[in-house]
From TrEMBL:
Keywords noted in UniProt: Hydrolase
Domain Beta-lactamase-related as annotated: residue spans: 2-345
UniProt xrefs under PANTHER family: BETA-LACTAMASE-RELATED DOMAIN-CONTAINING PROTEIN (PTHR46825:SF9), D-ALANYL-D-ALANINE-CARBOXYPEPTIDASE/ENDOPEPTIDASE AMPH (PTHR46825)
Pfam families: Beta-lactamase (PF00144)
Provenance organism: Portibacter lacus
Protein name as it appears in the record: Serine hydrolase
Single Gene Ontology MF annotation: hydrolase activity
């Protein structure tokens, strides 16, 4: 069972359907609507991709530049100390960085997680104590603690046994590093850069990276299980999963990205857009270009995202000019929730076929 969710279907540059269902908050019976906002998890990374491509268009950086040309600290894979990690490696998840368990330290909750261990999924029990201990930390301090020698969580196993640019391995912290590179290259905060060049350009008026800017009455309560609410939270590596938005704003974004892919966008050129969405490693199972991925069939482009209490899917099919989005205020931690989410996505697919 799902607390609440919103969906949207896009066709030929227009929203054909969008609506919300269920509850943004179960206890207060607050409805989940098309204006309800929530974290969207790793779909946030697509905005890093757009920001990097825009920065390259503006001449602020080159995706094939080494990351150490920009960072205020030095990061290397100790297994390959002379091999340079580039921005493109980071953006395609081929940097050789491996997210350790310490990544869970990035979640900073607004209150304590007061949960009954007997009512939560087994895999989550080990995280509750850790989440309740987490405290805010500057992103650079967090990155250094994981990937710089001498850092609290630094381990050789935090790096792959393959040199940069060769092997695909998804990295959330790597996405956070990419956001810092953007800041150093542009001289702007990541929040301000994305607001100026993406949100304002598209008209995403209900979108922010900052929980402090959010009116909590408008935000969906995240749920671990149905009825088991979680406190609101932010991420130290905020750009990798911390964007807060509504189904309507995200639909405007997907419309722009679909237009961009056809050479009709305002934010990026067709060349940059297609480069961003084309897998970097052509002869492997890696689906990523610049923080955008393709399905195994190659027909769909987009991203999904899951974080404590949230799930988001956002994909489009260039061949059909159709896109669809789903946002849910619960993460699938049991079979019934997984089935409910599959059913909603299945309904969207059937609607997609009709139009």
């Amino acid at each position: 069972m799902l607390p609440g969710f919103s969906v949207a279907v896009i066709k030929d540059g227009a929203i054909k359907y969008e609506d919300g269902f269920g509850f943004a908050d179960i206890e207060s019976k607050k409805s989940y609507t098309k204006s309800t906002i929530q974290n969207i998890g790793s779909v946030s990374k697509t905005f890093i991709g757009v920001a990097l491509m825009k920065a390259e268009e503006l001449g602020l950086l080159d995706l094939d530049d080494p990351i150490n040309d920009y960072l205020p600290y030095h990061l290397i894979n100790p297994r390959f100390p002379t091999e340079k990690i580039t921005i493109r490696h980071i953006a395609s998840h081929t940097s050789g960085l491996n997210d350790p368990d310490a990544y869970e330290r990035a979640y900073v909750f607004e209150g304590k997680l007061a949960v009954d261990p007997s009512t939560i999924p087994r895999g989550w029990k080990k995280y509750i104590k850790l989440y309740n201990e987490n405290e805010g930390l500057p992103i650079d301090s967090f990155i250094i603690s994981v990937y710089a020698k001498g850092g609290e969580y630094y381990r050789k196993k935090n790096f792959l046994r393959k040199k940069p640019g060769v092997q695909y391995k998804y990295s959330n912290i790597g996405a956070g590093i990419a956001s810092r590179i953007l800041e150093e290259a542009s001289g702007m905060s990541f929040s301000n850069f994305t607001k100026q060049y993406i949100f304002d350009e598209i008209g995403m008026t209900s979108t922010t990276w900052n929980l402090d800017e959010v009116k909590l009455d408008d935000k969906a309560t995240p749920y671990l299980t149905y009825g088991q609410a979680l406190p609101h939270y932010s991420l130290i590596t905020f750009a990798d999963g911390g964007l807060i938005t509504s189904i309507h704003d995200l639909s405007l974004y997907l419309i722009e990205m679909m237009k961009c892919y056809e050479g009709k966008g305002r934010v990026l050129s067709e060349e940059k857009c297609k480069e961003m969405m084309e897998p970097y490693l052509k002869d492997s199972k890696s689906p990523y270009g610049v923080f955008w991925s393709r399905s195994h069939s190659g027909l769909s482009i987009g991203h999904n995202g899951g974080d404590p209490g949230v799930l988001t899917n956002m994909y489009f099919m260039p061949s059909k000019g159709i896109g669809k989005i789903m946002m849910v205020n619960i993460m699938p931690t049991d079979k019934s929730t997984e089935e409910a989410i599959r059913n909603v996505w299945g309904v969207l697919k059937k609607y997609e076929e009709k139009i």
